[in-house]
Prior knowledge:
This protein is α+β, with helices and mostly antiparallel strands and 357 residues long. The chain contains 13 helices and eleven strands.
Amino acid sequence: MSDLATLEADLSARxxxxxxxxxxxxxxxxxxxxxxAISGLMKTLGTMxxxxxxxxxxxxxxxxxxxGEAIVTKKAQLAEAALEAKLAAEKVDAxxxxxxxxxxxxxxxxxxxxxxxxxxxxxxxxxxxxxxxETDFHNFTALNFPPKHPARDxxxxxxLNATDEMGQRKVLRTHTSPVQVRTMLKQKPPxxxxxxxxxxxxxxxxxxxxxxxxxxxxVIDEVTTMADLKGTLMAFIKAYFEIDxxxxxxxxxxxxxxxxxxxxxxxxxxxxxSVRIGTGDDWLEILGCGMVHPNVLRACGLDPEVYQGxxxxxxxxxxxxxxxxxxxxxxxxxxxxxxLKHYGFSxxxxxxxxxxx
Length: 357
Ligand code: DAH
C-alpha cells in the first residue's frame, strides 16, 4: 500500500471509531490542521516538479476532500446520536396512567358521612365540629340533664380522670348533641348546622359498639316549627334512601334537651329477612328529634321568648347498615381488609345529589 493509501486507511479507521465530537475534532486537527498530516503533504506540492505536482495534486486534493467529508458526516452522526440519547433520557410519559388497581377503599361510614354532608349541605346546613373529649357542661348540663340525674348513667358514659375548669370529670362525648351547645354559644341565630362524628358508650353487641358515629342537626330561628322539622327530615329520608315516597310517623318520646320530643319511624318492609325502606307497612325507628328545650336555649345565652328551633340526632353506622346491608356493627371497626374490600367504596365515586348518591 502506498503511503497515501495507508494514511487514508488510518484516518478513516480513526474517524469511524470516534465516539464523541472532541475526539473527532482531534482527528481533524491531526489531518487537516495547520500542522496536520495532509496539510504537510500539500505543502510539499510547491517543491515538486510540474509533472510530479500534476500527478500528486489531484491525489492529495482527493484525499483531503474525502477525509473532510468523512469528518463532516461522522460529526452529523454523532450529533444525531447525542440528541437521541438526550431525548431518551428526558422522556416524559404524558399518557394516562393504567386503570388503577383497587388496593384501598373508602369505609362505608366515611362514604355515608359524605352523602349526609351533601344532602344536608344542599338544604343549607353548615358543618360544625366539636371535640371527642367533652366537658360535663357541654355533654350534659347545658343540654338540660339535671345534676345527678340517672340520664347521665343511662348513657353508659366513659368518664375520664381529667377534670374541667369546673372540677368535673371530662367525658368521652356520649352523643353529638354537645356540638349544638358549642354552636349556639359561638354563633348568632339563624343557625342551621349539622355535626357528624364519633361518640362513645359502654356497650358492645351486634348492634352496639363502644365507639360509634352520630349525626346531629340543629336549626334555630325566630319562627321554626315542628312542621319544618318534619319536612326537613322527610326530604332527607327521600334523598338518602333514594326513594320518591316515604311514610313517616312521630312517636312521643323523652329527651332532656327537647320539648316536645319524638322518635321518628319510617315505613319499611321486613318480609324476606331484610329491611327495605319505602315500601311495606312495618315501621322502623330511625332517629330522635324535637323542639329545642327553653332551658337549653337559656344555657346557651339565647332568649326562648325570641328564639326557638328544632334538633335531631341519629346513628350514622345504622344508616349505613340500612342502606348498604352490613350485618354486624362490630365488623365496621375490626380493621379487616377483606371486609373493607367487600363493603368499601371506590374513592372515585364521590357522592353528590346531582350525580347520584
Ligand atoms: N342525643 C340523642 C341520643 O344520642 C339523639 C337526639 C335526640 C339528638 C333528639 C337530638 C334530638 O338532637 O333532638 O340518643
